[in-house]
Design goal:
Number of strands: 0
Number of domains: 2
Helix content: over 70%
Strand content: under 5%
Number of helices: 8
Length: 188
Amino acid sequence: MTTSAKEQELLKGLANNDKKAIEAIYADNYGLIQHFVINNNGSEDDARDIFQESLIVLYENARSPEFSLNCQIRTYLYSVSRRLWLKKLQYGRRFEAQVESLEDTVPVEEDLETHEKMSRQYGIMRGAMGKIGEPCKSLLEAFYVHHKNMHEIASFFGYTNADNAKNQKYKCLMRLKKLFFAQYKNGN
């Protein structure tokens, strides 16, 4: 089964952070996830959290050029949500043997493992950014988060020219890399 043109458009919109596409995916699919979570010992807050995590997994995959969705978005989100919720129930020792089943599930173990690995790495990076200090933190954020060019950065941080700003960015990046891999080795 392949996805319809409408769903391909929604995936493309999701990958591009299109608000209308995200709202459409939410409107079409949240009710199913909410129903599943609430009927399996969860709350509305749990359902929102699980749906958001599932949407993030789909978003990360939709941005990858290698990703090809071979089922409906609804089926994919349900499968990811179901696995996340069951994992949370098992972790919280609230797991009950009777869990609602649905025929249209998709194997998503690899997607979840990738998502969890990326989440861990993001956490390590956030920690490294917290330890890097100023002005490196602000300089790297200006370049990588706010997409400022070297001339703007040089002007803002008071460097004499864009080349000096570029050299400083490189030094900061090497420092961040060193902090990241030191934490990464200790954490894994």
